[in-house]
Amino acid sequence: MPVSVIESYDRYFASRLYDQRYPRANPSTLAVVLEQLGRQGRRVLDVGCGNGRYAEALLERTPASIVACDISPRAIGDLSSRYAAHVASGRLRPLLGDLSVVASSLGPNEKFDLVIMLFGVLAHIYSRALRGEALAAIRALLRPGGRIVLTVPNAARRFSREQTAARKLIQAGHLEAGDILYERASDDGVVEMYYHLYSLKEFVQELEQWGFRIRQVGAESVLPESGVVRSTLLGKLDGVLTTLLPLRYAYGFLAVAEVANEEDATEYLPPPMPRPPAPGKAE
Ligand SMILES: C[S@@+](CC[C@H](N)C(=O)[O-])C[C@H]1O[C@@H](n2cnc3c(N)ncnc32)[C@H](O)[C@@H]1O
Questions:
Q1: 247 contacts: CB under 8 Å, gap ≥ 6
Q2: 180 in any annotated domain
Q3: 9-63 pLDDT per residue, tens
Q4: 52 Cα to the center of ligand 1, angstroms
């Protein structure tokens, strides 16, 4: 991995910059999650939960029980202390680590009705192969018919300068097509990040390749997320724009996908990984 995502996010959360930029859940994404939860039951896995803006909304608005995992110790520390009463009651179970930690912390028959993986978590996982492993792990953690709500950044809307800068690293084989490195200023200095930016086609193909059936695809937002979650007016405007504008204008893509059925889940074998992209052929 070219940068430490754990270290970067630890510093990001510790600086409180993340809370300033993203103080609450994206209202239209949350609406999709709540709708799915209504249909899908009450056990939720929040993968890459951060310090809990979606977990908080679900704890407040639904009777769901939530397992929330993140690789950042700072994020899990903040989440655990903020929602200590829910942790004590057993409704919220914070786990420090990735999906392998979730799998090893649960009983073999403990499955989820709904997995949420929101605001670029998948895109922070370095390499196409490891993102595929993460999707396969989620599939195994869902009950038959269980669903995932997943969002990823749109390459056509995000980080154009960084995409240009990444070309040399992609040509040299240090990054894969669609990958970028970017920097975020924090009180504590510069935080370096890895991100994979998606086209809609790649997003849909990746989900289907790893055994999901897509139920719905839309925009996570059209306006930048930090504006949408900080201003009620922008949040409302964005809710309208996401329904009116073509998906190519999305700031991030949102998909709702499901595991087809039980036989499918046990018999499913991951497909062979796609061949690495030709040098210099950025998406
Ligand atoms: C942009 S934040 C999103 C946090 C939260 N979902 C939200 O919407 O506020 C990305 C989060 O993903 C976490 N993350 C990155 N890779 C991860 C992995 N492999 N497993 C679990 N969490 C991961 C980071 O630590 C960070 O908290």
A1: 200, 217, 218, 219, 253
A2: yes
A3: 998 899 888 999 999 999 999 999 999 998 666 999 999 999 999 999 999 999 9
A4: 10
